[in-house]
């Protein structure tokens, strides 16, 4: 039997992860679950939010189901360390970013698919005095390890870095800026990783019947990095005669987001642009309660909802949060390990609950979260799970 490393993490991660496992079991997916420590508690107690023992578990079992973690700014992080760890030079790193980098989980997939009847679906005017609801079905492929989030950055860059940069003619603009007054974040792409993310996008489009792949970049300005994305995409496209290659600029794509989102099949982008565009599309299909994702490397894969730990709802009992983003992430895990039949069964059950419209978490009712949402007709997190299980 397969073993899944379950990493609930912090806050509502501890709520939605066990609910997902309860659903997986009800749907007939047989697995062992081992618990992986991750998150704020381990930063505070051990000075490491991603303990080595969790890395070892993933190394061994390959598949992780992750809830969410809490991150705090540098100073707040150090202030919350156990007293005996203070002043020992511990530096906080986001454990999910560390996981992606450690296992080279370079392919991030974020499907944004509208469910029929979801009251949070985007609608627009049809130009004839009425409204239309485009059925968005767009899958974002985000390069997950390099680019703007690669972490190669400085405030007050060392002299060698400054000297190297000064060889570039455009550095004239900064000639009078002292190093200590300078902040630098780099955007480095490697050809290998660029080819991998673009190939993954085309393969996905082919396998799932999407007719277009869009590279969403900014090659007119970011001539080198976006240029590499677009050029590699043109090369790779040659192997996929039935799939069209489009390219859009990230800024224009955000402007068009609401104009014709239903036209886009698969979109591929660098790390930061992929982050932006996937949040944009997620907003059209229900937002954080529905946004799921996969982080896939050659060897290891971790599946997680896009949302964070929502600390303000952590203490609410019963819980009010929407577990569907976590359920859909668990379905992506099933797809990945060739359990597509069970995944489809769960997705169908979720679709039925949404379309029926009787069971809604507070976010689906567009009301403010809090202990009083049940009086207003919202269901609890567990009731949502129960409703999905009942449809299986
Ligand atoms: P968040 O995603 O935790 O929450 C933002 C808002 O979205 C919440 O106030 C809540 O109203 C709503 N929300 C989130 N998940 C929901 C769900 N399942 N159902 C219904 N409503 C939901 O982001 P926020 O508040 O910016 O960050 C909170 C903490 O989470 C921070 O420490 C942040 O660093 C961390 N974070 C972690 C992520 C991860 O684990 N991958 C991703 C984003 C944030
Ligand atoms: Mg984001």
Task: Describe it.
- The longest helix has 18 residues.
- The mean pLDDT is 97.
- Helix 8 links the parallel strand 10 and strand 11.
- This protein has 392 residues and is α/β, with parallel strands linked by helices.
- It is built from 13 helices and 14 strands.
- Strands 2-1-3-14-13-4-7-12-10-11 form a ten-stranded mixed sheet, with helices on both faces. The protein has a two-stranded antiparallel sheet with strand order 5-6.
- The protein folds into three domains: 206 residues, Isopropylmalate Dehydrogenase, CATH 3.40.718.10; 121 residues, Rossmann fold (3-Layer(aba) Sandwich); 34 residues, no CATH class.
- Magnesium ion (MG) binds next to helix 10.
- The site of magnesium ion (MG) has 2 residues, from helix 10.
Strand and helix map with partners:
Layout: E1 2-9, H1 13-26, E2 31-35, H2 40-46, H3 52-61, E3 63-68, H4 74-79, H5 95-102, E4 107-113, E5 124-125, E6 131-132, E7 137-143, E8 153-155, H6 159-166, E9 183-185, H7 191-208, E10 212-217, H8 225-237, E11 244-249, H9 250-256, E12 266-269, H10 271-284, E13 292-296, E14 301-305, H11 324-336, H12 340-356, H13 381-391
Parallel strand pairs: 1-2, 1-3, 3-14, 7-12, 10-11, 10-12
Antiparallel strand pairs: 4-7, 4-13, 5-6, 8-9, 13-14
Helix pairs in contact: 1-13, 7-8, 11-12, 12-13
The structure holds 1,4-dihydronicotinamide adenine dinucleotide and magnesium ion (MG).
């Amino acid at each position: 039997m397969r073993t899944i490393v379950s990493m609930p993490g912090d806050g509502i991660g501890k709520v939605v992860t066990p609910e997902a496992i309860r659903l997986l079991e009800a749907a007939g997916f047989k697995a062992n679950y081992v618990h992986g420590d991750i998150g704020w508690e381990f930063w505070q107690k051990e000075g490491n939010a991603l303990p080595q023992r969790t890395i070892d578990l993933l190394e061994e079992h390959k598949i992780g189901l992750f809830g969410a973690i809490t991150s705090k700014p540098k100073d707040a992080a150090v202030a919350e360390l156990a007293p005996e760890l203070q002043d020992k030079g511990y530096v906080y790193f986001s454990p999910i970013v560390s996981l992606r980098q450690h296992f080279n989980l370079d392919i991030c997939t974020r499907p944004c698919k509208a469910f029929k009847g979801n009251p949070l679906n985007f609608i627009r005017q049809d130009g004839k005095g009425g409204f239309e609801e485009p059925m968005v079905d767009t899958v974002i492929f985000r390069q997950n390890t390099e680019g703007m989030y690669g972490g190669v950055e400085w405030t007050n860059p060392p002299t060698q870095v400054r000297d190297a940069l000064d060889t570039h003619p455009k550095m004239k603009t900064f000639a009078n800026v002292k190093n200590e007054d300078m902040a630098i974040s780099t955007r480095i792409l490697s050809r290998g990783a660029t080819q991998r993310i673009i190939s993954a996008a085309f393969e996905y489009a082919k396998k799932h019947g999407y007719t277009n792949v869009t590279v969403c970049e900014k090659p007119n300005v970011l001539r080198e990095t976006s240029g590499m994305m677009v050029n590699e995409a043109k090369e790779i496209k040659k192997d996929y005669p039935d799939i069209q290659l489009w390219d859009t600029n990230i800024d224009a794509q955000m402007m068009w987001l609401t104009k014709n989102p239903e036209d886009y099949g698969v979109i591929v982008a660098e790390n930061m642009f992929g982050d932006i565009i996937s949040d944009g599309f997620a907003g059209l299909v229900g937002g954080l309660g529905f946004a799921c994702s996969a982080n896939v490397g050659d060897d290891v894969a971790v599946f997680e909802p896009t949302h964070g730990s929502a600390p303000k709802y952590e203490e609410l009992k019963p819980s009010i949060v929407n577990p569907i983003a976590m359920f859909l992430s668990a379905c992506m895990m099933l797809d990945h390990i060739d359990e597509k039949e069970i995944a489809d069964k769960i997705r169908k059950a979720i679709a039925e609950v949404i379309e029926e419209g009787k069971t809604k978490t507070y976010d689906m009712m567009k009301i403010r979260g809090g202990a009083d949402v049940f009086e207003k007709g919202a269901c609890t997190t567990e009731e949502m799970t129960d409703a999905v299980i009942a449809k299986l």
